[in-house]
Design goal:
The complex is a heterodimer of chains A (515) and B (594).
Chain A: H1 2-21, H2 23-26, H3 37-55, H4 61-77, H5 81-94, H6 100-111, H7 115-128, H8 132-144, H9 148-161, H10 166-178, H11 182-195, H12 203-212, H13 216-223, H14 236-244, H15 249-260, H16 264-277, H17 282-294, H18 298-311, H19 316-328, H20 332-345, H21 350-362, H22 366-379, H23 384-396, H24 400-413, H25 418-430, H26 439-452, H27 456-468, H28 472-482, H29 488-502
Chain B: H1 2-12, E1 17-19, E2 50-52, E3 61-65, E4 85-90, E5 93-95, E6 98-100, E7 103-105, E8 117-124, E9 133-139, E10 143-147, E11 153-155, H2 159-162, E12 167-173, E13 182-187, E14 197-198, E15 204-205, E16 218-225, E17 232-236, E18 250-256, E19 265-270, E20 276-280, E21 286-288, H3 290-293, E22 309-312, E23 321-324, E24 333-337, E25 343-345, E26 361-367, E27 376-381, E28 409-413, E29 419-421, H4 424-427, H5 429-432, E30 437-443, E31 452-457, E32 463-467, E33 474-480, H6 486-490, E34 493-496, H7 511-520, E35 532-534, E36 550-555, E37 561-565, E38 572-575, E39 584-588, E40 591-593
Parallel strand pairs in B: 33-39
Antiparallel strand pairs in B: 1-32, 2-3, 3-4, 4-7, 5-6, 8-9, 9-10, 10-11, 12-13, 13-16, 14-15, 16-17, 18-19, 19-20, 20-21, 22-23, 23-24, 24-25, 26-27, 27-28, 28-29, 30-31, 31-32, 33-36, 34-35, 34-37, 37-38, 39-40
Chain lengths: 515, 594
């Protein structure tokens, strides 16, 4: 029995020793099941190449480091961070003077929320060479850990390397915000936005800085400009990972993230990569159509959406996007069949019903448009554009009383919706049927929209309301003041009205009740 | 030096929580998420849990929403699971001095047998008869039950709650200060099945909310009953209040008077979109001021994946902070109230950012787990994407959702909203065990003065974590009188006046208490605020309802008075001689009595 035990132990040692020398055993082997075939094949081929390189006794440390690091980049590119970390560690150990491996190791550790390990790796990278993205990353991690002093120092070090770097300035601004140094925060964040105006996410911390300084108005202005695009330092090492990706899905996912951040240009570029991997990809064409439409490339968008429909004629997203695109381009007739297809497939699609109503209205068919606006309202009774469309359709059908009733109902639930309130005020001030006018109420409503947005159209409605209410001098004064601000074709009419109203009562307007 | 001493104290004490699920009879109430091996967002977001005393016997009972067949599975056998929910009555078992919790299923007897894919629960005495009523939030049409007060319920679901949607949470609160409870219902996204998403690796994965259309929330005004004992009438104010115009994928809601104007405001966590802070303008009108108030986004200007919420005065300055749990990689968010509803994201400064970053948080509750006077924080976690799953978790290949398991976390408030993550040894191994936890309901289930917790799991039976805070710590609880209506109680603030004296002598023979006293001997009497304030509430967390009673710990200090503020009633002060009572005081509408 004793002999057996000794033998067993020996066997175990032998096995362990064999395993330690098996190069394949060291290479991480993440589960590839379920991955896109092209991606799985790429990862598998990369792994096999690394294993072969490790088995090559003649391979030099630098060559082995490149092989490990390259596979780490591949895993990193597909979000397989655990595997990437293993590879980067091997590469860094083999090539201790190489910046790439500890830097990418730090980023991979950060991505899997191992902040302490990330910090060590990034500091190792910085000891090899100054690399601003590593400093920015350290600053961001300091912020996440509540170390505003450390964050400010990291940002200043980055700025010493790249003056006016928006990402470093953003870190500095947020560090100052954490320290409640609102003036310093505002200065840094303003500077970041000057350096990179598209980093519209920074308007948010900037707003908080102004709020801290007691400037609420300025804070509100900044809040109105908040978007989702952050400030990034140029980072060739991370950007290199993009080139490693293959297949359709990875660029499709990145495109959707870019689109969510409002970065349509990057989204379009990623979608073209997806289409290069799978030229018949319907979802890539659908998304490309949306991206190009947002970039103002209507013809490109149309081509992409038509390609999507060629591949999948029942794709309702493509139909809807193409319908809206054509409608926006003024081709309501071409838009019609696409929007009808969507409505037929999903009757409670508010956007499709409303857009179909808009198309029919544009084609001069208000009676046909009306049921679609009403279907949209039935599905979402607070949909302001549908309420507005319904009122306009009724006006075009000559059903002014019904339009007024519907606008009154809309006003009950949406009193803050200026367009609806404005239209109601105009009807109450200048309905051709004098019995339906209500000057006092028209003034109240028109004044509310004028106060909220004092533009020429609102002013004109207020002038009409004042006249209808018998306040002729006020109406004339306002109309005179507005005459210079309205379109030339309306100027004469307004000046004539002002002259007439200035003569005193009665001064009821004769203007038609059109939106 | 301070933190080292704290750590040694914590290490020497018994774990704060122990698992009592099996003994309490909860093992047979596993949630059926209906996933059946598919990667469906619909199937991984429930359930919550509700702790409330439905039968007025003084202890907390438990309601558990049940999932079942997904509403989208029209061809599936309807008998696969009954859905709805389960009502479990707390029947404490006494053996000598030992009292153990035991739950008994009384669903059918209480008249709560119902179908529907249950997700969330909310509790509130909306008819003001002193018996708490119950809302079951589902995917596909909610259920509202009025508690008759005799141990049974009658369904009174109003029309606005019947429509097919995805109710993820709700809050009963007095929106218009008329003395009854109105109802805010949080809606998530359009519940469409069969949407396919994938991870960065290209592997199929659960979709996030961006793949779906967000749904607007609803506000229902309580117009009272037309006749005594008749059903309460509700008016849908979603449109006129301004609430329905802001659609967002909402998951958590809590009412809190963040601007101290006497009107309850609402904080709603949205998943991937800016959170709402509905400031109550009176007259049933609300305006979202989340952005300017500083609670809509995280500090860097991005919306986060808001899930569960909580509100409480963490720093002792009298106003309530707001807390929201988020997605892994983001970390949770603490918004510190600087007064007048101007908040700052001070998560990192509070020590709550980095430790929460690896996990996806759902339910959350401020509880004074160690009864030292400061509100601690309990958070339950569980991933929502396979790409975030911990590969170390033991999983079931046929049930991909089991890969989403993550541990819960207990953060100790070291004073003034500065937290440290407690080790699993100190907090209790039970809460550190990885699980797919969604709801968290807290309350003193065993009536011993410390706050226990029920964790509602997506992939199994709920867990009951009983607290064992140091037995020498002083505490006082305040509870509404049996039969007292909810609304006036929820409008109050319980405040312990500052009459801190020297440490109480060790008068106990309990070995655990003596150990705690010995280990705490070196602790400085950290500067507790002049007043300890707690606001009773049932809402918050995720899809869950908590014990509305208030427990305030004193640690080794003395406190000789408790005050009840708020509402039309005058301030009521109770005083007592040392030691602190270590029992519940009762508040009744006409005043408080011991």
């Amino acid at each position: 029995m004793k002999v057996c035990r000794v033998l067993l132990v020996s066997l175990l040692f032998a096995t362990a020793s064999f395993a330690a020398e098996d190069p394949a055993a060291k290479v991480p082997s993440p589960d590839l099941a379920g991955l896109e075939p092209a991606v799985a094949a790429q990862l598998q081929a990369g792994r096999e190449a690394l294993v072969a390189r490790l088995a090559d006794k003649a391979a030099k440390p630098d060559e082995l480091a490149e092989a490990w690091g390259g596979q780490g980049q591949l895993y990193h590119a597909y979000g397989l961070f655990d595997a990437a970390v293993v590879c980067y560690r091997e590469a860094a150990a083999l090539q201790p003077k190489e910046l790439r491996w500890p830097y990418l190791l730090g980023q991979a550790e950060r991505a899997r929320s191992e902040l302490a390990a990330a910090r060590v790796a990034l500091q190792t990278a910085l000891a090899i060479a100054p690399y601003p993205p590593a400093l920015v990353a350290l600053g961001e991690m300091d912020l996440a850990e509540g170390d505003s002093t450390g964050a400010a120092e990291a940002a200043q070090r980055a700025l010493a390397l790249v003056p006016k770097d928006a990402a470093a300035l953003a870190v500095l601004g947020q560090a100052k915000l954490s320290q409640r140094d609102f003036k310093g925060a505002a200065e840094a964040l303003e500077a970041a936005l000057v350096a990179l105006p598209q980093a519209d996410r920074l308007h948010y911390p900037l707003a908080l800085a102004y709020r801290g300084l007691g400037d609420e108005e300025r804070a509100k202005q900044e809040l109105a400009r908040v978007g989702r695009t952050g400030a990034r330092t140029a980072d060739p090492l991370l950007e290199e990972l993009d080139a490693a990706r293959t297949g359709e899905l990875a660029p499709l996912l990145r495109a959707r993230r870019a689109a969510a951040a409002g970065d349509w240009k990057s989204a379009a570029a990623e979608l073209r990569r997806a289409l290069a991997a799978n030229p018949k990809s319907v979802r890539a064409n659908v998304d490309l159509g949306a991206a190009l439409a947002n970039l103002g490339d209507a013809s490109g968008a149309r081509a992409a959406l038509e390609a999507a429909l060629a591949g999948e004629p029942s794709n309702m997203t493509a139909h809807f996007n193409l319908g809206v695109l054509l409608l926006g381009a003024g081709d309501a007739a071409a838009a019609l069949p696409h929007l009808e297809a969507v409505v037929a497939a999903k009757a409670d699609d508010v956007d499709a019903q409303r857009s179909l109503g808009d198309a029919l209205l544009a084609l001069g068919r208000p009676a046909d448009a009306l049921p679609h606006y009403r279907a949209a309202i039935a599905a979402a009774d607070l949909d302001e554009p549908s309420r507005f469309g319904e009122a306009v359709a009724l006006l075009r059908m000559g059903k002014l009383a019904e339009a007024r009733d519907r606008l009154e109902k809309a006003y009950q639930v949406m009193p803050e919706q200026g367009r609806l309130t404005h239209l109601l005020a105009r009807l109450l001030a200048a309905d051709p049927d004098l019995s339906r006018r209500n000057g006092a109420r028209a003034v109240e409503l028109a004044n509310a929209v004028w106060q909220a947005q004092p533009d020429a159209a609102h002013g004109r409605t207020l002038a009409l309301a004042l006249a209808e209410a018998g306040r002729c001098a006020d109406a004339a004064k306002l109309a005179t003041a507005l005459a210079d601000k309205v379109a030339p074709e309306e100027r004469g009419e307004l000046e004539a009205a002002a002259k007439s109203w200035a003569a005193g009562p009665p001064c009821r307007p004769a203007a038609p009740a059109q939106p | 030096m301070f933190s080292v001493m704290l750590a040694s104290v914590v290490a020497s004490a018994q774990p704060l929580f122990r698992d009592a699920s099996e003994a309490a009879g909860l093992a047979s109430f596993a949630y059926d998420n209906g996933a059946r091996g598919r990667l469906e967002l619909l199937a991984i977001m429930g359930p919550g849990a509700a702790l409330f005393d439905y039968d007025g016997d003084g202890d907390l009972d438990l309601f558990l929403p049940q999932g079942g067949t997904l509403p989208s599975d029209t061809d599936a056998a309807t008998a696969a699971s009954s859905g709805g929910g389960r009502l479990l009555r707390n029947d404490p078992q006494t053996s000598g001095a030992e009292v153990s919790v035991r739950f008994v299923d009384v669903t059918a007897r209480a008249g709560l047998a119902a179908g529907g894919y249950g997700v969330a629960a909310a509790v509130g005495d909306y008819d003001g008869d002193g018996a708490p009523d119950l809302l079951l939030g589902t995917i596909g049409g909610d259920r509202l039950w009025r508690n008759r007060g005799d141990g049974s319920f009658v369904e009174e679901t109003p029309e606005p709650l019947r429509h097919a949607g995805w109710t993820s949470g709700a809050s009963f609160f007095d929106a218009d200060q008329d003395g009854d409870l109105d109802l805010y219902v949080v809606d998530y996204v359009e519940p469409v099945a069969g949407v396919h998403c994938f991870a960065e690796s290209s592997r199929p994965d659960y979709c996030g909310p961006a793949a779906y259309k967000p749904l607007p929330d609803r506000l229902l005004r309580n117009d009272g009953a037309a006749s005594a004992g008749g059903p309460v009438r509700w008016t849908d104010l979603s449109g006129s209040s301004g609430i329905a115009r802001a659609g967002g994928p909402g998951l958590g809601v809590i009412a809190s008077d963040v601007d101290a104007d006497g009107k309850l405001d609402l904080f709603v966590a949205n998943d991937g979109q800016p959170n709402f802070l509905w400031r109550n303008g009176g007259g049933g009108r609300f305006a979202d001021e989340g952005l300017l108030s500083g609670v809509a986004l995280a500090r860097e200007g991005l919306p986060r994946a808001g899930m569960g919420v909580e509100a409480g005065d963490l720093d002792g300055d009298g106003d309530e902070e707001l807390f929201v749990t988020n997605l892994s990689g983001e970390g949770n968010t603490l918004y510190v109230n600087g007064g007048e509803a101007l908040f700052e994201d001070r998560t990192a400064e509070a020590g709550l950012a980095a430790p929460s970053r690896p996990w996806t948080g759902f339910g959350a509750a401020f509880v004074d787990a160690d009864l030292d006077g400061w509100l601690d924080l309990l958070v339950v976690n569980g991933a929502v994407r396979l790409a975030q799953a911990s590969s170390a978790s033991a999983t079931d290949a046929a049930r991909p959702e089991t890969q989403l398991r993550q541990p819960a976390q207990l953060y100790r408030n070291r004073g003034g909203a500065r937290f440290e993550l407690m080790s699993s040894a100190a907090a209790g191994g039970a809460i550190a065990e990885p699980r797919v936890t969604r709801g968290l309901a807290v309350g003193d289930v065993d009536d011993d003065g410390d706050v226990d917790a029920v964790a509602a799991l997506n992939d199994g039976a709920p867990r009951l974590w009983l607290a064992g805070a140091n037995p020498a710590a002083g505490w006082v609880g305040v509870a509404p009188c049996p039969g007292a209506p909810d609304a006036p109680w929820l409008a109050r603030t319980v405040e312990v006046a500052a009459e801190w004296g020297p440490p109480s002598p060790a008068r106990t023979t309990d070995p655990g208490a003596q150990e705690w006293l010995a280990s705490a001997a070196g602790l400085p009497l950290s500067a507790l605020p002049a007043h300890l304030r707690r606001r009773p509430h049932r809402d918050g967390s995720y899809a869950s309802a908590r014990d509305p009673r208030v427990v305030i710990g004193f640690g080794r200090r003395r406190a000789r008075a408790v005050e009840l503020r708020g509402g039309a009633a005058s301030v009521r002060t109770l005083r007592w001689l040392d030691p602190a009572p270590r029992s519940y005081l009762l508040w009744c509408p006409e005043g408080a009595s011991r």
